[in-house]
Design a protein that fits this description.
By secondary structure, this protein is mainly α. The protein has two domains: 34-278, no CATH class; 293-369, no CATH class. The protein is 63% helix and 1% strand. It has 13 helices and two strands; from the N terminus they run ααααααααββααααα. It has a two-stranded antiparallel sheet with strand order 1-2. A hairpin with a 2-residue loop joins strand 1 (171-172) and strand 2. Helix 3 (34-63) crosses helix 11 and helix 8 (139-168) runs antiparallel to helix 9 (179-203). The longest helix has 34 residues, at 245-278.
């Protein structure tokens, strides 16, 4: 692709929001190394799932010992979502009930995995929102915040679990569910998930985030999560159902890892979209991730400035960012957030009357906007 073609594509995506905004989100995902954050979140979430199931089975065996019918119904409903793993746990419920070691492992494992997932989510959101390191909670308060948050998540997930089970079963409490009721249950589940995501983005981010700027991304992520749940149910029912124990165990582990990874990816991408929209980090220059011989626009400068100031470890530490390249021609656009810390707001910039150097500056020459000799830019790219 020639430089002339790249220049035309760049100009097109910068003029059209529907092209420039998704590209800016993709660039920020790679700038933040969000895929590694997704892998970290997947690791802790995966570690918490099996201990939680183990704890659930042990708790049923202890609390519902005198009600075997209700115990069996709950086991068939919940463990039925995990065909092979569920059969393994269902067959060993009596062993788990009388095994204090299994119960202790379940409690410790679920706490480790759940708190790790909460910590990973906090770190990821603070990094995405470019919260300086010194403004984040210390290790003790961040874990306390994670524990408080997990109580809310458990309540919300319990509601969505009951709704998904009611929608997936042909009968619920002896009542045959029709299409309209199933659709209503699915919509309620999406609304609950959207509320959980909205609370997550707001509570775990140590940054002033306007809720009105998060609802669209939360709703979109909730819809994507619902589709992912349906896909996971189809995989468990049609791919793993009837599989041998050996193949089925590998299939459930790999499928569960992929399912959690996609869910974490949805969570992270929705957060990236929120930041790009809130701080107007678009449109980006097309070739900025690939070369230094490129003209940075205002969105590029705001993004790279935020990445540098995020690593401020102390409140008395000052990080300044300079670009050895002339700013883009034309007026500087608004950042899009009233509390944007990533550069001065155009309204706060010194006026020509307040700045004698600007007041007596001669009219701009077109050549003045060219990059300096130390950074001339690619031939035929910015100078065609």
């Amino acid at each position: 692709m020639g430089m002339g073609t790249a220049q035309r594509i760049d100009a097109f995506q910068q003029r059209h929001r529907w092209a420039g905004l998704p590209l800016a989100v993709v660039y920020k995902v790679f700038d933040d190394q969000a895929l590694y954050l997704v892998a970290l979140l997947t690791y802790y979430t995966f570690l918490s799932i099996f201990p939680v199931l183990l704890l659930f089975v042990s708790g049923l065996g202890f609390f519902l010992e005198d009600n075997p019918d209700l115990q069996r119904q709950l086991l068939n409903s919940v463990l039925g979502e995990f065909p092979v793993l569920g059969e393994q746990l269902r067959g060993r419920i009596h062993a788990f009930r009388s095994n204090g070691i299994a119960l202790a492992i379940g409690i410790l494992g679920s706490l480790y995995g759940s708190l790790g997932a909460a910590q990973a989510a906090q770190y990821s959101l603070n990094k995405i929102w470019a919260v300086p390191r010194y403004q984040r909670h210390d290790p003790f308060r961040s874990r306390l915040k994670g524990m408080l948050f997990l109580t809310t998540v458990v309540c919300g997930l319990s509601v969505t679990l009951l709704l998904s089970l009611a929608a997936s079963e042909s009968e619920a409490f002896g009542t045959d569910l029709g299409t309209g009721l199933r659709a209503t249950i699915a919509l309620v589940a999406v609304a609950v998930n959207a509320g959980l995501l909205l609370a997550t983005y707001s509570f775990l981010t140590h940054h002033r985030v306007a809720l009105r700027g998060l609802w669209a991304e939360s709703l979109g992520a909730a819809c994507a999560w619902q589709v992912l749940q349906w896909a996971g149910g189809y995989y468990a029912t049609n791919v793993l159902r009837g599989a041998s124990a050996t193949y089925g165990m590998f299939g459930i582990v790999l499928g569960l890892l992929g399912w959690i990874y996609l869910g974490a990816l949805i969570f992270m991408v929705a957060a990236e979209v929120s930041v790009v929209r809130a701080h107007r980090l678009w449109p980006r220059s097309l070739l900025t991730p690939f070369t230094d011989r490129v003209w940075l626009n205002w969105a590029d400068r705001r993004a790279y400035t935020s990445y540098a100031t995020t690593e401020t470890f102390k409140g008395f530490e000052t990080v300044t960012v300079e670009f050895h390249q002339r700013p883009p021609p034309g007026p500087r656009p608004a950042a899009g957030a009233a509390d944007d810390p990533w550069g001065e707001d155009p309204a706060e910039a010194p006026s020509p009357e307040a700045d004698p150097a600007r007041r007596h500056r001669p009219p701009e020459d077109p050549a003045e906007n060219e990059p300096p000799d130390a950074d001339p830019g690619p031939p035929g790219w910015e100078h065609e």
